[in-house]
Amino acid sequence: MRRSSRRSVGQRRHGSPGRAGARPRPARRARRAELSPRFPLRPSRVRARRPPRAPARPEAQRTAAPMIAACAPRGAASPDVQPPAPPKVRAGLRRRAARRGEGAPLTAPARPVAVLAMAPRLTQGLIRPVHLERLRALCELPDPAPLARFDEPRAGPLLARAEILLSGWGCPPLDAGLLARAPALRAVVHAAGTVKNHVTPACFARGLRVSSAAAANAIPVAEYTVAAVLFAGKRVFRLARRYRELRGFRLWGEEVPDPSNYRKVVGVVGASRVGRRVVELLRPYDLQVLLHDPTLDDAAIRALGAEPAPLDDLLARADVVTLHAPAVPSTRGVLDARRLSLLRDGAVLVNTARGSLVDAEALTRELVAGRIDAVLDVTEPEVLPPDSPLYDLPNVFLTPHVAGALGSERERLVELALEEIGRLVRGEPLRHEVRREDWDHIA
Fold this sequence. Notes:
Layout (H helix, E strand, L loop, with lengths): L8 H6 L11 H10 L23 H13 L15 H13 L14 E4 L2 H4 L5 H10 L16 H7 L2 E4 L8 H5 L6 E4 L10 H6 L2 E4 L1 H20 L2 H11 L17 E6 L3 H9 L5 E6 L5 H6 L3 E2 L2 H7 L2 E4 L13 H5 L6 E4 L8 H10 L3 E4 L19 E3 L11 H17 L17
Parallel strand pairs: 1-2, 2-3, 3-4, 5-6, 5-8, 6-7, 8-9, 9-10, 10-11
């Protein structure tokens, strides 16, 4: 009887144990390879047993592992840190890197030398320890005490090394003689508003970079202005004085003409940093805002959110006029007697810019007559003489040039200046640079 050639599945896969030429099972093949070189073992045909996975460590251990490794004694093993390569391997890697030009040590670039220059009496508390720490992180600071004068004994060595001058209120003028003593100076960063009190044409001729914190100083000035505009429309200043005089009850809406801000017209003269900020801050109120600036066309003024108007038309239409033009020769006395006469009866003039924008004598005559009111943070001259009638007039609210940064508001100035110094150190463009071509149009 013929034997069947059919085999089981296991026999077809691994071969029968006694049949010649049958493929041996993996265990037998491994055993043969151990016993005789005639049966070499191919590793690809043998499945390696996967080592058991280590159990996951708790979160606290994983978090603490770097600190444990850092605090472990030298030579102690760490489960998360690979052991260093042997010395011969490291030496070979260094030789290979040197052949490729990759083994040169990296050195930190030299930090520029910064010197402070400002009047301590005007800037006391302006530069705090946290600011000095930030400055030291950016620059080399040989002396944290500001220079009040450039003729003091320690000024010579400091100016000879200075590359960045951090200036503030009361900084002495930077004329050609001073610049000759500072051959390395390449930038002046002012932690205040205008730079016209100490930066001279010699700075631009020398090619110095000049930056100002006028943008930071514009914020409190605009806030003061908006408060003055709203109080002026409500006739708060006149009513406060009247209340102090009467010390009793009145129908206060009948004591002054139209104490309201609803649909009033506010005229802004000058689209400076402060003027633009004032227009922006007045946007939520039910006010019509007119803007005059001879350097902008009508489309640019509308883009700022205001209605363009010629200066004479603005003065004739506005209930409140606020001045924000720069003090330059072309704007001196821009509000003369003729233009002041264009203001409607009961109009309010707010000046937080410069007293030189207004004819002082003509303004005094109008205010003494009581035809208009005024909120004056700046005057011409500044300070007013003791016998000036503006101190006592009921229609004048007089403040001693306090609209700008005071108290904690000054921190904005220093922070902006430090950010500008950081940009200089990193080689980035300045955001608040003062250029020579802008000199005739800035405050």
